[in-house]
Amino acid sequence: MIKKIGFIGLGIMGKPMSFNLLKAGYELTVYDINTQTVEALVEAGAKAGTPTEMGETCDVIITMLPASHHVKQVVLGENGILETATEGTVIIDMSSISPVVSVEIANEAAKQGVEMMDAPVSGGEPKAVDGTLAIMVGGKESVFESVKDVLRSVGTDVTLVGKNGSGVTAKLANQIIVNLNIAAMSEALVLAAKAGIDVEKMYHAIRGGLAGSAVLDAKVPLILDRNFVAGGRIDINLKDITNVMETAHEIGVPLPLSSQLLEIFHALKVDGKAGDDHGGIVQYYEKMANVEVRRV
């Protein structure tokens, strides 16, 4: 029997993920405040519906939303999923939110017999488009097995990390590594640019060594082209690193580099860069050094 899927949140990531679910043959109902995006999915074969309608009709409901309060509202709030969802419904929250809030929502859903998985993703818009996202999942193993086919329609590396909250905790760790990698890379690029060497040649010289990384290959060509169109927005990553610091402080883990990164994100936001890709971290260093990293 074909699963009926609901998808709430059709932004940079949610829209291509929804298209991939349609391609996989699922019966899809979608919701977003952007009606044009909803219409595009409807034209491709989806149905438009509200969270409460999804609760009544869908087997699996996916949320891909900007922040914790959005997920709480859509699941627990007025006209939310739990107003109508019945026992056996599975909610998969693929947003990057606070582990504390994620567990809180899962516990509330469980009171109605509704299962919840936290399943944030990594890979950005390109991997959302081609369906090769890395997905880190928290929840019951039996529920994970029942929805693995859905997750594999949008990602290739799908891993059950542990109980509820484990997936979003793994995503916080992922965000530390990715964003600090971009920051370190930015320092190096600005140093090279200020020294007057050909940054593109330097990139090709180091990418095959220990300094090489997926982040380096994904971001340096875009920086050299001065292309900061968002695949992962600075304000969304600011939210993630804020969650990192709050979680770390709560459990007693000092994170000195992440705390500095958070201030860099705040500085970029104040400088009007909130909507740029997080590769735009380089602009913070460029401003201080009075130099620009670009192709010769």
Automatic annotation (TrEMBL):
EC numbers on record: 1.1.1.60
All residue ranges annotated as the 6-phosphogluconate dehydrogenase NADP-binding domain in the record: 4-162
Signal peptide limits: none
Membrane-crossing residue ranges in chain numbering: none
Domain annotation 3-hydroxyisobutyrate dehydrogenase-like NAD-binding: ranges: 165-285
Pfam families for the chain: NAD_binding_11 (PF14833), NAD_binding_2 (PF03446)
Active site: K171
Protein name per Swiss-Prot or TrEMBL: 2-hydroxy-3-oxopropionate reductase
UniProt organism field: Peribacillus butanolivorans
UniProt lineage: Bacteria, Bacillati, Bacillota, Bacilli, Bacillales
